[in-house]
Write a structure and sequence with these properties.
It is a single chain. 42% of the residues lie in helices and 16% in strands. It is globular and about 80 Å long. The longest helix has 18 residues. The strands form six sheets. A seven-stranded parallel sheet has the order 3-4-2-5-6-1-7, with helices on both faces. The protein has a six-stranded parallel sheet with strand order 8-13-12-9-11-10, with helices on both faces. A five-stranded mixed sheet has the order 17-16-20-19-18. It has five domains: 205 residues, Rossmann fold (3-Layer(aba) Sandwich); 157 residues, P-loop containing nucleotide triphosphate hydrolases (Rossmann fold); 88 residues; 50 residues, no CATH class; 150 residues, no CATH class. It has 30 helices and 27 strands. With 802 residues, it is an alpha/beta fold.
Length: 802
């Protein structure tokens, strides 16, 4: 206790607590002037560890002005941390102001914060970037002592991490003595994160602090009262069983992997909620008011269950939550640990969780996740070079604050690890893009955002570009949205324009737990009224969450080791045994390809376990190559585990379809001709500031943004194919939208590891993926009965032993 000032010592002692070793080590690192990365289990007091040096500093040396910045990936987490931090501040009677600044913060408060900032400001990367675009940022951050990055694993390796790394490099220039700290429970490779956190990437300047181990989580897999389903990925069959679990707990969080599924599961649970227990729903498309209302109800213990998405994955501390239920497979051990940590948010108590697999492959994935958690195996998110569209946005933000010289800006930017290898030529291209849009666009004044002065410095060409930047800056580019409102103006949230386009007046859909009937669709609003009629579930675009490589490898290991099968339910074990008898099971590293006829079609199923995104890309490429070979392909379906193609003529030589040169030929043609590259360009054009989403007092519709970016895309493809943003779009399309890394890995090993088995009918292993045929374009929940019948028919055929 000698490390702590008296008010902190007394406050801790009054609760019967003792500071944990890692909390004191974070304090020691700060007092030694070191940066620090804390890796500690959920419930280990990471937040207090992050703020302990700040509280100690401000107790010992009270001061006005901004002392500590806290950056989190989620608005909800910033609000929750503020609530939990205010308690000790108020109970110790400290004169310390703690405030949040996110996209939800009122504009008058934002303006006041720049003039009279609190000592502790909780924010997000995007809001921090906007703060740095103001001339008074130099004064506001001059005395900054610390920055604390929470849940660093959640965004450091992506574009939001690029933006934050650039912001930290700028802050370090403004406040050279600033010290950095980062917190996480699920970092697989601490040295990578230490390098990301360190100024100039020097990991020796960052102390690694490891937390005390916590109690092992108590995780079970919920099995259905019948057999594990052949198809599906949501666990909806278990609604009554899940409700029974909720009835026996104080508070339960039911996690879903998508917003659509969250709305659907909420409705399923409500139908079987015979005790009328209070249940809520929470996801990122709900209005701020709806989310805050639910969060407050959870914090006050007024809800028995909350159905949620990744919007509540991270750090939110509700002590009364005693169980987490994951609907469908978790897709990664790190994500599962994060979600489990929402239950019994205390280090010394086991967090309790229940997994509800959607089908038999998902049962194996759930079992693999349990084993990975028990082994302490986490998923590693690889770092990659910083995105150029993010760099363009950051440079523009800096220009809005003050003119700059190119050499000084380049040196500053290179202090951020993602841009440490950035060369002067590429940086000049970024400056040229901001200056006039590039060769093909420089004739248009609206792209001339920067001007170079005679002394070589760069400044913003006109004040309107500063306003334009602040209105449109951001890294998260969602699909075009419409507001869902009641006639009285009350906002429920947003749905995607593409979904709204399928609705007519009088149609109903579930949103925010309510059946909404469409009154009319305006330019920006979808006006609704409450209804009691049956309703659809909104659909949302975007890439799906693929199974991690670690879990995929463990599932493959299960298939190859029958001695493991004794742990599985009888029906899952029988499924694998009949597969082994009728065909074969792939060895680790092998690519099993089965071909068989059925009802006048010919099928090819490949079990590659590379995740849905990579399989979707591969399906497009395989069917194009099948067309070239005259096999008359009809389509394909993909899951995380396998891809199935069907055609009028049989595939007799699958090796010729899977050759690696498909990435040199068909892949390039497909991406350029498909919507993927245009969609990627749309995102980088918005992030890079080429196309604005908002004008003062008016927001562009999704169609207007799409029209603008598609027009520019076509011009650049024709006249400037080497444009900076086309390069950035290619990088996005390859890495994120097509998962080309995992795709290339699959194709590289296909020739040497492929095992082709010709069958006379469908195999047991093929049933889960083939049940997806006809399902991909059907609104969720509308055709489940028919699909169950189809799955049962396929299963009976596959499991026959003759």
């Amino acid at each position: 206790m000698r490390h702590l000032p008296r008010p902190l010592t007394d406050w801790v002692a009054a609760r019967g607590w003792r500071p944990r070793r890692h909390q004191l080590e974070m304090l020691d690192a700060a007092r030694a002037g070191h940066h620090a990365l804390l890796v500690a289990a959920t419930g280990a007091g990471k937040t207090l560890a992050g703020f302990l040096p700040t509280l100690a500093d401000l107790i010992e040396t009270p001061a006005e002005g901004l002392h500590t910045l806290y950056v989190s990936p989620l608005k909800a987490l910033a609000v929750d941390v503020q609530r939990n931090l205010l308690t000790p501040v108020e109970e110790m009677g400290l004169d310390i102001r703690v405030e949040t600044r996110t996209g939800d913060t009122p504009s008058d408060r934002k303006a006041r914060q720049r003039v009279r900032p609190p000592q502790i400001l909780l924010t997000t990367p995007e809001s921090l970037s906007l703060l740095l675009s103001y001339p008074d940022s130099f004064l506001m951050f001059a005395g900054l002592t610390r920055i604390v990055v929470d849940e660093v694993h959640a965004f450091a390796s992506g574009k939001r991490g690029d933006l934050l790394a650039l912001c930290m490099a700028r802050l370090q220039r403004i406040a050279p003595d600033m010290r950095r700290a980062a917190l996480s429970a699920t970092v697989a490779d601490p040295d990578s994160y230490r390098a990301w956190l360190a100024p100039d990437g020097d990991i020796d300047t960052v102390d690694l602090v490891l937390g005390e181990p916590g109690a092992d989580p108590d995780i079970t897999i919920l099995l259905p009262e019948g057999t594990v389903p052949w198809s599906g990925h949501s666990g909806r069959y278990a609604a009554e069983q899940v409700m029974a679990e909720i009835e026996t707990r104080r508070t339960t969080i039911v996690f879903c992997n998508t917003r659509s599924l969250a709305e659907l599961i909420f409705q399923d649970l409500w139908k079987v909620n015979l005790l009328s227990l209070p249940i809520g729903v929470h996801h990122g498309s709900l209005s701020k008011e709806a989310r805050r209302k639910v969060e407050a109800a959870m914090a006050e213990g007024r809800l028995r269950a909350l159905v949620a998405t990744a919007s509540l994955d991270l750090g939110v501390d509700w002590g009364d939550v005693d169980c987490v239920i994951q609907m469908g497979a978790p897709k990664g051990s790190s994500r599962l640990l994060q979600r489990i940590g929402r239950a019994n948010h205390r280090l010394d108590e086991a967090s309790e969780a229940i997994l509800v697999p959607g089908n038999r492959f998902e049962y194996l994935e759930s079992r693999a996740a349990l084993d990975a958690v028990a082994a302490g195996e986490l998923d590693n998110e690889p770092f990659r070079p910083g995105a150029l569209d993010v760099l363009a946005q950051h440079v523009m933000a800096c220009a809005c604050a003050a003119p700059f010289r190119a050499d000084a800006m380049l040196a500053e930017v290179q202090g951020a690890l993602p841009y440490s290898a950035l060369d002067a030529e590429t940086f000049d291209r970024v400056l040229g893009f901001i200056r006039d849009g590039g060769y093909a666009l420089r004739a248009y004044d609206r792209f001339k955002r920067l001007t170079q002065e005679s002394d070589g410095s760069w400044r913003v060409s006109h004040p309107r570009f500063i306003q334009q930047h602040r209105l449109n800056a951001g890294i998260i580019v969602e699909a075009a949205m419409l507001n869902v409102r009641f006639k009285n103006g009350r906002l429920l949230g947003k749905v995607e324009e593409s979904f709204a386009a399928t609705l007519s007046n009088g149609d109903t859909f579930f949103f925010a737990g309510i059946s909404c009937e469409v009154i009319r669709i305006d330019t920006e609003d979808l006006l609704v009224r409450a209804s009691t009629k049956p309703a659809r579930i909104p659909t949302y675009g975007g890439a799906r969450m693929p199974i991690s490589t670690n879990l995929a490898d463990r599932v493959r290991g299960f298939l190859a080791h029958p001695e493991e099968w004794a742990r599985f339910p009888d029906d899952v074990r029988e499924w694998l045994e009949v597969q082994s008898y009728r065909s074969r099971l792939p060895e680790p590293g092998q690519l099993l390809v089965e071909t068989f006829p059925r009802e006048g079609r010919h099928y090819m199923v490949a079990y590659s376990f590379e995740g849905w995104n990579a399989h979707q890309s591969l399906g497009m490429l395989l069917t194009r190559r099948m067309e070239t070979q005259g096999l008359k392909p009809l389509g394909f379906v993909a899951s995380d585990y396998a891809i199935g193609c069907y055609s009028l003529d049989p595939v007799t030589d699958p090796a010729s379809l899977f050759s690696p040169d498909i990435l040199q030929h068909e892949f390039v043609d497909w991406v350029q001709q498909s919507h993927l590259l245009k969609r990627a360009f749309r995102e980088v054009a918005v992030i890079g500031g080429l196309v604005e989403r908002q004008h003062p007092g008016k927001r562009k519709t999704g169609k207007q943004v799409t029209f603008s970016t598609d027009l520019i895309y076509d011009v650049l493809r024709k006249y400037e194919p080497g444009h900076l943003l086309l390069e950035a779009a290619w990088a996005d399309a390859r890495a994120r939208m097509t998962d080309v890394g995992r795709l290339a890995s699959l194709l590289d090993r296909a020739a040497d590891t492929m095992v082709h088995v010709t069958l006379d009918r469908v195999s047991p292993l093929a049933v889960p993926v083939l049940t997806l045929i006809g399902r991909e374009n059907v609104a969720m929940g509308l055709a489940d009965d028919a699909l169950l019948v189809e799955a049962e028919s396929l299963a009976q055929e596959a499991m026959r032993l003759d």
